Amino acid sequence: MTGLVTLGETMLVLRSTEPSPLRWGKPYTAAMAGCESNVAIGVARLGHPAAWLGRVGDDEAGHVILATLRGEGVDVGGAVVEAKGSTGMMLRTSRTTGLNQVRYYRAGSAGSHLCVTDIAPDAMVDRQFLHASGITAALSSSAREATAHAVRLARSSGVQVSFDINHRTRLTTPENAAAFLAEIINTVDLLFCGDDELEILELALPGDDPVRSALDAGVREVVLKRGAFGAQVHTIDGSIEQRAHAVVVADTIGAGDAFAAGYLSGCLDGEPLTGRLARAATVAAFCVSSDGDWEGLPHRAELTSADPAATTTMR
Questions:
Q1: What residues pair up with 56 in beta bridges, in sequence order?
Q2: Contacts of 315 (CB under 8 A, 6+ apart)
Q3: Most exposed of 27, 174, 185, 299 (fewest Cβ within 10 Å)?
Q4: Which among 237, 257, 293, 307 is annotated as catalytic?
Q5: Is residue 193 situated within a structural domain?
Q6: Does residue 100 sit within a domain?
Q7: pLDDT of 12 above 60
Q8: What letter would DSSP give residue 241?
Q9: CATH assignment at residue 211
Q10: What is the SS3 string spanning 45-101?
Q11: How far apart (Å, rounded) are the C-alpha atoms in residues 111 and 114?
C-alpha cells in the first residue's frame, strides 16, 4: 500500500494581482485551491502517488481544477463532474499590502453536493492514507455523510485515516464541528489540530486534557500546528516539538495544508516523528514564502538542495 487519497472540495480562486478593491477594475488571476487538493499536490510533488476525490461542475472552473490536478500528477479518476451544479469560487482580494480579504461563493455548489455514492467501493485500494478535513463535513448533510462513509471505508480497508479539524466559522458552529469529530474520532490515526481549534477538540472529548483523551480514543498521533511558533506531536509515549523556519512571509494561506502534506510524506517514507515534523516545517516554510495556496510547495529535490529562508541564488 502506498500514497494517499484525499476527499474534499476544490474551488476556482480569483486572486488580485495588486492591492486594490475589485470594484476599481484591477486585474485578477484565476487558479484553484482546496484544503485536500492542496495536500494531494504537496504529497505528489514529494514523489508519492496521490489521488483526489470530490465534485466539480461541468463548467470552465471545474475543468481548470481537473486539468491543474492532472498536471500536478494527482489522480482525478474518481472525481465526479456534475452536469447541473456550478463549481464553487473563492475571491481573494489584497486590500492593502499584507491584508487579504477572502469571500466564498460555494452555497449550492457541486462540491457541496458530494454524497456517499460518489465514493467508489475500491477508492481506497492500494492507498496507505485517506486524508479528509472538517471543511468537507461542514459543507452539507450529504457531504458530512460522505466524509464519515469514506473514513469508515478506509478503516475497513486497512487504510490509515488522517483528519484535519480545519474549522471554518463561516461554515459551521464549534458544536457541530465537535459533534462530527466525536463521531469519527475512534477511526482516526493522525489528527491535525491548530492552536485555535483546541476548543473543538475539548468539546468533542470533554476532560482535563483533550489531547490525552484523543490518544485514549485511539488516535496514534495528535499534531498541533502552531504557525510561527512551530508544531508539536503527541503520542502515548510523550511529545516532541519542532520550531518553525524563520522566513520572509509572502502569503500564509495554505500553510496548514502544506504542513500536513510534509508530515504525511514523512509518514509515507517511514520517517520517525522528528523527521516527519522537520519535513512538515520545511514544506510549510516554502509555502508561506510564496504567493498562492499551493504554488510554492516544494518538489522532493528542493528539500535538500534549497533553503526556504535563503536569499542567495541557487546554481
A1: 81
A2: none
A3: 27
A4: 257
A5: yes
A6: no
A7: yes
A8: E
A9: 3.40.1190.20
A10: HCCCCEEEECEEECCHHHHHHHHHHHHCCCECCCCEEECCCCCCEEEEEEEECCEEE
A11: 6
Domain annotation covers residue 102: no
CA distances from 164 to 43, 168, 187, 193, 268 (A): 15, 12, 13, 6, 17
Q: pLDDT (tens digit, 9 = 90+) per residue, 125-140? A: 999 999 999 999 999 9
pLDDT higher for 4 or 293?
A: 4
Which candidate, 226, 112, 84, 114, places its Cα nearest to that of 171? 112
Residue 75 C-alpha cell reads as 489522480
Amino acid at 5: V
**Residue 301: is it exposed, middle or buried by C-beta count within 10 angstroms (0-12/13-18/19+)?**
exposed
Which residue range is the domain that position 228 belongs to?
Answer: 5-9+34-88+109-300
Tell me the pairing of strands 80-82 and 55-57.
parallel
Q: Report, as an integer, the average pLDDT of 52-62.
A: 97
- In this structure, are residues 286 and 296 in contact, taking their beta carbons and an 8 Å threshold? yes
**Is residue 156 over pLDDT 90?**
yes
Phi, psi of 138 (to 5 degrees): -90, -5
- The answer to whether 257 is a known catalytic residue is yes
Element at 256 (helix H, strand E)? helix 255-268
In a domain, 101, yes or no: no
- Strands 99-105 and 160-164: what pairing? unpaired
Number of independent structural domains in the chain: 1
